[in-house]
Amino acid sequence: xxxxxYEPVGxxxxxxxxxxxxxxxxHLSNYFKQQFAQVSNPPIDPIRERLVMSLFTRVGASxxxxxxxxxxxxxxxxxxxxxxxxxxxxxxxxxxxxxxxAVIDCVFVADGKPGRLKEGLNRICExxxxxxxxxxxxxxxxxxxxxxxxxxIPSLLSTGTVHHYLIENKVRTHIGLVAEAGDVWEVxxxxxVIGYGASAINPYLxxxxxxxxxxxxxxxxxxxxxxxxxxxQKAIGNGLLKVMSKxxxxxxxxxxxxxxxxxxxxxxxxxxxxxxxTISRIEGLGYDDLATEVLIRHQLAYDLQSNELPAGGIxxxxxxxxxxxxxxxxxxxxxxxxxxxxxxxxxxxAQKINDQTxxxxxxxxxxxxxxxxxxxxxxxxPVESIFKRFATGAMSFGSISFEAHTTxxxxxNRIGGKSNSGxxxxxEIRYEQKPNGDWERSAxxxxxxxxxxxxxxxxxxxxxxxxxxxxxxxxxxxGQLPGDKVDEWIGRVRHAxxxxxxxxxxxxxxxYSIEDLAQLIYDLKNANRQARINVKLVSQAGVGTVxxxxxxxxxxxxxxxxADGGTGASPISSIRHAGLPWELGLSEAHQTLVKNNLRSxxxxxxxxxxxxxxxxxxxxxxxxxxxxxATAALVVEGCIMMRKCHLNxxxxxxxxxxxxxxxxxxxxxxxxxxxxxxxAEDLREVMAELGFRTVNEMIGRTDLLxxxxxxxxxxxxxxxxxxxxxxxxxAEGVGLFKQIDQDFELERVLDxxxxxxxxxxxxxxxxVTGKFTIQNTDRSVGALLSNEISKRFxxxxxxxxxxxxxxxxxxxxxxxxFAAPGITFELQGEANDYFGKGLSGAKLIVxxxxxxxxxxxxxxxxxNVAFYGATSGEAYIRGMAGERFCVRNxxxxxxxxxxxxxxxxxxxxxRVVILGxxxxxxxxxxxxxxxxxxxPEHTLKELYNPxxxxxxxxxxxxxxxxxxxxxxHFHYTKSDPADWILENWDLASELFVKVMPRxxxxxxLKKGVVVAEKVVK
Amino acid sequence: xxxQAGQGLYTPSLEHDACGIGFVANxxxxxxxxxxxxxxxxxxxxxxxxxxxxSPKTGDGAGVLLQIPHAFFQQVMLDSGIELPExxxxxxxxxxxxCDKQVRxxxxxxxxxxxxxxxxxxxxxxxxxxxxxVPGPGALEVExxxxxxxxxAVNPAWDSSVLERKxxxxxxxxxxAMNRDVKGGNEFYITSFSCRTIVYKGQLRTxxxxxxxxxxxxxxxxxxxxxxxxxxxxxxxxxxxxxxxFRYIAHNGEINTIRGNVNKMKSKEALFRxxxxxxxxxxxxxxxxxxxxxxxxxxxxxxxxxxxxxxSLPHVLMMLVPEAWQDNKLMDPHxxxxxxxxxxxxxxxxxxxALVFTDGNRIGAxxxxxxxxxxxxxxxxxxxxxxASEAGALKIDAKDVLEKGRITPGxxxxxxxxxxxxxxDEKVKRSVYEGKPYYQWIVQQRxxxxxxxxxxxxxxxxxTETLTKRQQA
Amino acid sequence: xxxxxxxxxxxxxxxxxxxxxxxxTDGFIKFNREMPKTRDPKERINDYKEIYPPLNEEHVxxxxxxxxxxxxxxxxxxxxxxxxIPDFNDAVYHGKWEDAIRILSETNNFPEFTGRICPAPCEAxxxxxxxxxxxTIEYIEKAIVETAFANGYLKPQPPKAxxxxxxxxxxxxxxxxxxxxxxxxAGHWVTVFExxxxxxxxxxxxxxxxKLEKNVLDRRLRLMEQEGIIFRTNANVGENVSAKFLTxxxxxxxxxxxxxxxxxxxxxxxxxxxxxxxMEFLTQQNKRVAGDRIFSGDILADNKNVIxxxxxxxxxxxxxxxxxxxxxxxxxxxxxxxxxxxRNQETNPWPNWPMxxxxxxxxxxxxxxxxxxxxxxxxxxxxxxxxxxxxxDIEWQVGESGKAGFIERxxxxxxxxxxxxxxxxxxxxxxxGNVVQELGLELDxxxxxxxxxxxxxxxxxxxxxxxxxxxxxxxxxxSEGRETARAVDAYFMGGSxxxxxxxxxxxxxx
Lengths: 1017, 473, 510
What we know:
The complex is a heterotrimer. Chain B has helices at about 35-45, 70-80, 100-115, 135-140, 160-180, 205-210, 215, 260-270, 280-285, 295-310, 315-320, 335-345, 425-435, 440-445, 465-470; strands at about 15-25, 60-65, 90-95, 120-125, 145-155, 190-195, 195-200, 225-235, 250-255, 355-360, 360-365, 375-380, 385-390, 400-405, 410-415, 420-425, 445-450. Chain B is an alpha+beta fold.
């Protein structure tokens, strides 16, 4: 961080234990998991939407809120919360400006006697109160004064405890808290200490470490200490923005003391005293136990005279250090057993995994089955019927090689399970079955925030459509595929320009709340009525209520994904500190769905480090009737857990697009089939043992699980896992697994009339026309019709204008969603949000009602987030659009007369002509396509986001292109501004600014296309 | 609700909701039933934004806030022999009573006690006519007994703004006492208690609201403004209190920082002093916020407190939900100073939000800094402003449309029915930020750490030799 | 000293340094495995010096770049010591030799030995070897330690404090030395007893100088002495030093006597002159190289036809030594069938040790190798001198019981002329000398000393190395010594902070 100014990145998830299950002494912050937004509120993109975010913080007293005076603002303002030593010195030097301070030594007596930590905390609380009474304005909580007799109180603990103590005594607002902390160095530490009340932190030990590292020449660049510190501040700042943004919080000021964490394994006493109000469902360590954690380290430093820091190994498997589930022998047995079809060897693998699991690595390892009358294994349902409950993980073509991807698909299709396309489209050649019966088509098509390659045809070719709300490895965050990884093939599949980088935004820009998710589900159901709609959530506290909401939004299936899984690359603090193991999320989701009588309407699925029949049995008993396996399936294909997936250097040809490395791929569908058969057999053996004949009987039978009593570890003994096994008493007639289909009320959709109208077009490609009135309750118009077109005519659809429909009125949300080639919709009136979402080749025209008299170019005619993820087609909009026009557009050519903020955000292709005003942050994250903005007042340069684009003049080719588009716009809408511009083209064309992504320009340059000079600003 | 306290892993405090919102307002303040009826129609056309439970008949909640229909109340109360004072001189409380008769009796006694002790006079109760066959089965199980309470001030000098503050004290005093002293009293809930506005709501589907309350169908019920809300919750536990609108706002969104905001309020409330309330009154009022309530309810409670202690409604919303100002180089420095100043006393209630708000005379809407929730509006030639989550939810004759717009991120729209004018963002905010010398205050009082000199005696003091030891510890 | 450890996570360094990829991420694509050229066999058989020329730093750098820094480093698992191989590879790649030797020394007390004579199971399990050639781990290891010695990075590090506990170690082979080093590091007083005239055990007398020059051993022993370890030679416990004396005088005794009882070949003619155990032969030569005179009768291969019976490493050492002594011919025979050139993926997949034809440097120097040969009889002349070895070809088959067996191939019986036959067919187990009897130690089924967590059946007496687990590799002996030291330390102190290969360092003693 000090070197480069950003946080470390890693891949393939985290299979180390929760802090409370760890045999190591773990940092107190590790007991806290970051909360993140999914479904009910959107995360923010802290990079491209930086303008709404702030790291500003303040120190000083707050006065009576009910009144206003000059004194109210007597405070010290700090631009970001990482204080250098010089900053702290400044703070201590402001006594005579009216900011007296007190330093409190946060240490406790290190003699190991019970109660010492609590004593220390009581003392510092008392001292804090004294300081307030003495009129101090700044309280510095310092752990500097440690020695052989005194151990440090974790800064998080001292901050939280003092913060709450002052609140209880109603004096918190009199004073600002600053931590002088030796135990704060990574983003998560800052996040927790700020989250529990500190305004700013001086990480003196981290700074000292940087200084020393720098002196010893560790950094590759030649840095001064000052530069290294600045880089560190920047890295922490950006990391904090990410932590905040993943919860949808914009300002550090609000984040401060917002306690957006779930504690796992702390006692009620600790929570209520030091972290009051924090979600904490799994009871655990008390103060004396926390003291032990500290004393282990203290002992290491002072008693043992050790001169070396122990090797960590949290992230990579190390022979010593933290335990990981995938150790070399386990990988070997799994690969060899599946290659040689050796069930006995698989059992050896499973035994080892289960043993490791039991060694406290996971929550499920702490559970055991209750004895029950067994049945003969012959009575247990056959493997074939279990197969359909299996899915493989969502990994995109692009993150893994074509060979690795199709091998999984073929295997899953052979057994009737489901493979997952991942986010990134799917090559249409995979939709046709091979002569030998093998099928490379992924049964599950994912719809993620980037919407890459999501077309009507793609959606039509699915048995299940999965909306990825969050990703286990990095919930609440987006992703990025750098341009150099977008080769011709990936570019084609993702409907993107090869060489142009692709950004997946943190939120789905059509899901900012639960009713928006309901709308997307409705869109997708219209786009493919046969497909099951699955919503993928990541396990965290509250996922149960979200799941209930999702069930009410009419999802058919919900996937509770464990945060420990995941194969993608992400910042290490996200891998480690956000999200929970699936056991907790699944159990909560099942309990909450039963409580709400919604369980029988949805299939519950879970995934995340599921590797053996025992894992599956526990998942079933906790409530999941379907299970996903990702990492283990990759290992069967040859993955040896390099954890270098983000580097394109996978030496076994899996996580790479390098043609040479891909040749090294040795995976085989047979092996994968063997693996799933082993899993199913393994599960059947457990079922027989437990006396279950069918999987359905098992679902939610937590009464057959109990917590093991034989675990001999001081931390684990304090854990109280009963909430995990709580069996929600179902009301009479309430099912515990999916039995009732959701009612989408599709019979009401306007599209049936459109299909009726289009009969001849669908049968013989004969052109048809029609007229309809429309109102806001007519939603997702065009999706169902497009589904019919895609079924018959595949991706190419019908010839232009074959189905021409005129509407009058106010169109509901998602007008023209996924509309296929050959459709032309002409709307007289107005439309709501998500106009032309995922447009797949159709033409959309909208203009105001002929009876209206307002000036269309000054009034809004379509809502927010138009053409989100659109891949191709044309659009002409006589009036203004709302926020995020053409967000993540990759191919649509659109003309509009004004747009709101964040126009053309993340756009990767297509053309946009804007004949009126644009809002702020235009072209943020735009990597491809071109926008031509009519900018007579030269305001665009103040409004655009310069991160990825340049502003240029139009060259002749541009002029020809823009002119043609504006001509069509006039032709379809009779637009006045278009008319004027065309009439005065010589003048007007000079007033256009061409917004050109640098990525895209580089690609064009490579191809030898002449590019206009940059406009000098 | 007690019986929904966490069992297993389910954590009630993590529930979420979202919704459709909107309002209809007559700019010139003309009252009619059509305004209410149109607002309800608009609400019904946003049914897809509301949620339904496992039974399609049970909605997640819907409601409407309107001006007190004085003429109507006068008439119906007279029918039962009670004469109401002139408009603005009495308060109407809309009360959800517990179903248990005995508890209800205790409630009435508590209310009476505070009515007397706080300088009011009880005029009478009116059982609100409702249709019990309308709510879904889940909602019906916990359907409250709904009555309206009419009180007037003993002191005739109290004008409507004084009365509004006193009613606020009365409502909070009663509610706190009920929670504290009466067993089962936590089911007691006052949806609104005001001399200006009244809220009809319940755990209903949007299309059930009108059918459930007879009043809403009564042509005599007139208003110049009506604010509606439909709720989509992540659960369907029966609960009538969670429906919106609240007393001043309806909120579509999520306050992500609620735990921190409410925690901080605890110490802020300890400092409350106001020229608008006596210390005894403040004592009865507190606590304003409560970790048990939803984020929206807490926000409403704070808005109410801040408005009734002297700030204007736009002012309060600007301080609680500020637009993005830090990095905005184009912003007027005085406007920025307003935000800087208020950052000293109040952190943003941060999260995606569309808010519609009213105090009965003014009605408006605003979006948070990210502007992720939609809010479209339309101004008509016939003098109405219609705002809603969706365009077209209320059909408007195309010829009548003067302007169609949307609320943009961080911006505000205000309709002042007394002045008969529509204010855009700049106008409404300028009147607020020019109200006090915020800019001077900031320049005089604020210290920027960055600009402070490093003390002369400061020296980087690294003890490399003990570093490892301290890293370990 | 500031520590520099990559992979730290609950400690600050890791996060502050960031995720700079270790080494070169595409090094394995760019470079091939290349070992340094050995000296010409024709030249090197004229001396007993090591067969490798001095290091080439650029070459080491390039080879270290091939390490992929695997997420699951199989090499850790392959290495009996659990060496942090990717970490030291990275340090070498970045030219940080001091870091490299520190990382290496954490898990391996004697990299200069293993860097020369280890068969490198780590390389067999290197992930690159799935479809490529493994990283030259052993070569890099040797480069690290030699660079460290050359630059003076390895200095004596006596413990800061002494516990006052005294430990006797019996046997100064790799296990004994490793145990000594670790126990000394933990602050205990250590005395090593060796029955021979020099310290080093198998390292001293079992391994020829051309594989391990003895000054390499001596410089390590000097360091250990400077760190406070006391060595007693000519102290044959059970003979001239009583075991009782040890148990009385010391707080703990660690038996590291090895498994030096050689396996015999009881066939007719075994008593002939010219039939010797390999170890006798090798030991003599090592003493000669050290400048000693041999009094017990020279066993020499000069001008003889030599047969080495046994195809393992010791046999290979006999081949090399015989050639250096000027043998007329050297033949090596092996009972088992000739292994395949490439591994059988079905039965012998990666990352298991590859059962493939292995050609050692000694083999390069000239030898006739034969497989699937059964020895029938030593044939001698009237002077009882060996003149030949009667052998027969055999064929290996899997019998009905599933067990492999062999049958003789009719008509293949023949006599191979030879004047010297060296038995290199392994060892039978712990030397059941007087120590075992004197202390009354229990043995296990295979004749090794029985232990529970390295503690024998007698209080305070521990055992480590071949004496405990049977004949094995030097690297295993070091591992045994280290683990036993940890057990002894824990025995004294109630817990141990010494490194352990599969236990993390920070642990709760409560």
